[in-house]
Amino acid sequence: MCKSADLLDNVAIVQCASDRFWIAGWTRQATRLHSCLHVGDEVISVDGFPIESLDQLRRILHGAFDRVALRLRRLPYGKAFSVQRLDGQSLGLQTVGHKAEICHVQQDGLAAAHGLAYRTTGAVDDANFCTWTITEVNGRPLSLWPEPKEVALRLNAHGQEISLVLQPTDLVKGIRCQLKRIKDYKQFVVG
């Protein structure tokens, strides 16, 4: 159960990828939602009503009492994995510039050894393949617009265990594009 006001004011839900509805971010005021939401969670229904449009979603939330039941499909296209490494050992991932999009997976690297392929079936267009984009590192969301060196710093953090959440790049681009259409979208940028 979530407070309807929190969802209205503090969570960005966008429509993309075959007209489905996705969590795109949340404000700093919604810190308690951080533990239960992930960028790329699919919103299935609110209070038992299947979501057909963003206007319908807003009407349900405006008409709701204090709390609503939010049904999510947790990261339906995501891949989460945890890797044990020696201090400073590379994961065998290369990203595009300072972005979180993976442009190469070294075949003899740790990520490949844990089953990560360079490409995945697209979420928007499942007839084509696309690359992966990192959306979380060690349980912390990564900004959809990371600062220069942010991705490298998070991936190279000291410690023996690192966990990643990866999602198809076409889905991440769709979410990012729709998020930018929201007035004051920067307040919902997590990371």
UniProtKB/TrEMBL annotation:
Protein's UniProt keywords contain Cytoplasm: no
Taxonomy, superkingdom: Eukaryota
Entry keyword Repeat: yes
Keywords: Repeat
Cellular compartments per GO CC: cytoplasm; plasma membrane
PANTHER family: FI13065P, SYNTENIN RELATED
Protein name: PDZ domain-containing protein
Protein species of origin: Macrostomum lignano
